[in-house]
Task: structure prediction
Amino acid sequence: MRRAVTGALALMVLGAALAVGARTGMLQGLAAAAVRARVVALGVTSARLADVRRIPVYTTAGRPTRLDASRRPVLFVATWCPHCRREVPQIARLVAAGRSRPPVVVSTLFLSGSIRTDEAATEAFVRRFHLEGWPVYLQRGDPWPYVPRGVPKLILVRDGKAVRLYGALIRGLFSQKP
Result:
């Protein structure tokens, strides 16, 4: 309901922008703000393409490497996050049913400060949600360039543009046929 209201509000703002902007020359700024409001209401934000082609992570063995979201979608999760615990099992069921190839999973936003504890929490998360065989990495340090507004967050490249999806939109993407 809230999304529908937000979407309707964004469209009303866009309509007002077209009416007022045509006479005053303010069309560009108002229309851009309305489009941004609609995009955020849908759970989609853009990212710089260069940023998502070199995401710094660590393997589960502790080796530093970089991921490229243009090659395979990257799903950021936190082992303690209730939203991740709700969405990841549903994505895993869709992947297990052959609906999609699994994304690369990046465990982030650790609370302990201990690498061993974080690795153990990630391993437990993988076992709990049956993600064995999925590529799993750890992300230490500042995740906010990749996951503004929290997790779970899926980053992928579509039509040459970097896109971030969150919430039910992630599950919707994996429910589509490959």
In short: Confidence is low (pLDDT under 50) at residues 1-44. The first helix runs from residue 2 to 24.
